[in-house]
């Protein structure tokens, strides 16, 4: 539970101190007034990486020497600072109970799930967006996954450079290519193994939520399409490494001709299917938003199961473009969790939901508690 948040010099918000101990909090106001900034600030307390499209320099108000986000939780106080050095460079700092430490060494459990309207692009965009979603989620849960993902991405980049150079000049450094291939296979096996294990939990959660939120009796089901065809549903990392190594050997002539790595977890995909068709290819805007909301709620539930804590749900403008039945289904799905909503008007929420929470009116980065 997040009881309170204090924000200073963060985007449009010069200073705000918000009590959030209610199960629901509502930030209501016109667009561009600072509602989303609060959600981004809370999310920053729980994440080591900035959200897609965000840059550190854009989080600190122009001319301010620092920005700070402090949160008081049931388990202790956490803080994120972004401080401008004498050279003008911004540096991040994470603190627990007032003590600075690496984010990877944090001890206070605090997780968030953030939905923004841009998340519909997870399904309408290229496969890289869906891989990014699952990679970020797994990296937040497993240091092993995070480390091997970073190692794989760097090795893939270097291996592609060797292959590309070989395709251009007709000569490949075989010794270097073999070293890179060995490293690539080792990390790819861990990535695939952890993806397969996690998705056995995640996909059923998504399918259940899809069934609850979808508007008819034929809801989409999430499908994982790994680039490598596994012989078993849950192969070991050792078996995956052996199979992947064999397939790369089979593809060696093609890779040398094309100048790139033709197989690996960087080519996996994850998408909802309905009647054998990819739903995002024909879904309406409202249906696409429902797909994305189901994905975020599955993220929420999977985090709860794995971490044994209740994450905080941050919903930015989730109710717009949704009809009343869909809004009611979303409200029901959020009830077990502390949820912070943003909206342009209170009419997007049912009176019963509003009675459960705290309402803030937002205007030009200032927040006024509305007694409703």
Report on the structure:
With 372 residues, the chain is of the alpha/beta class. It contains eleven helices and 15 strands. The protein has helices at 35-46, 56-59, 121-124, 127-141, 143-169, 174-213, 237-250, 252-258, 285-307, 324-334, 351-355; strands at residues 2-10, 13-19, 24-28, 66-73, 76-84, 90-96, 99-100, 112-115, 221-225, 269-274, 277-278, 312-316, 339-343, 357-363, 366-370. It has a six-stranded antiparallel β-sheet. A six-stranded mixed β-sheet has the order 8-12-13-3-14-15, sandwiched between helices. A hairpin with a 2-residue loop joins strand 10 and strand 11. The longest helix has 40 residues, at 174-213. The mean pLDDT is 93.
Summarize the structure.
By secondary structure, this protein is of the alpha/beta class.
Q: Which terms would index this structure?
A:
372 residues, alpha/beta, Rossmann fold, 6-stranded mixed sheet, 44% helix
């Amino acid at each position: 539970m997040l009881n309170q948040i204090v924000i200073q010099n963060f985007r449009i918000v010069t200073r705000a101190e918000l009590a959030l101990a209610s199960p629901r909090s509502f930030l209501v106001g016109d667009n561009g007034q600072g509602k989303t900034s609060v959600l981004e600030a809370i999310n920053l307390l729980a994440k080591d990486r900035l959200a897609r499209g965000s840059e550190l320099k854009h989080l600190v108000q122009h001319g301010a020497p620092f920005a700070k986000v402090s949160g008081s939780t049931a388990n202790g106080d956490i803080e994120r600072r972004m401080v401008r050095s004498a050279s003008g460079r911004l540096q991040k700092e994470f603190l627990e109970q007032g003590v600075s430490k690496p984010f990877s060494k944090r001890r206070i459990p605090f997780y968030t799930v953030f939905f923004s309207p841009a998340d519909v692009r997870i399904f309408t965009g290229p496969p890289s967006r869906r891989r990014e979603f699952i990679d970020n989620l797994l990296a937040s849960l497993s240091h092993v996954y995070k480390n091997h993902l970073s190692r794989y991405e760097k090795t893939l980049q270097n291996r592609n450079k060797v292959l590309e150079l070989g395709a251009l000049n007709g000569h490949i450094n075989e010794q270097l290519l073999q070293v890179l291939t060995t490293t690539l296979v080792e990390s790819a096996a861990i990535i695939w193994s952890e993806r397969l294990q996690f998705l056995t939990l995640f996909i059923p959660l998504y399918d259940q939520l899809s069934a609850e939120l979808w508007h008819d009796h034929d809801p989409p089901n999430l499908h994982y399409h790994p680039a490598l065809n596994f012989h078993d549903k849950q192969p070991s990392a050792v078996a995956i490494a052996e199979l992947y190594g064999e397939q790369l050997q089979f593809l060696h002539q093609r890779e040398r001709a094309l100048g790139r790595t033709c197989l690996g977890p960087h080519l996996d995909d994850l998408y909802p299917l309905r009647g054998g068709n990819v739903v995002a290819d024909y879904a309406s805007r409202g249906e696409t938003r429902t797909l994305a909301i189901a994905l975020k709620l599955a993220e929420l539930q999977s985090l709860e199961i794995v971490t044994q804590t209740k994450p905080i749900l941050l919903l930015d403008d989730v109710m717009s473009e949704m009809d009343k039945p869909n809004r009611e289904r979303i409200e029901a799905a959020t009830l077990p969790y502390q949820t912070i909503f943003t909206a342009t008007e209170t009419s997007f929420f049912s009176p019963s939901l509003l009675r459960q929470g705290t309402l803030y009116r937002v205007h030009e980065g200032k927040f006024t508690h509305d007694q409703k």
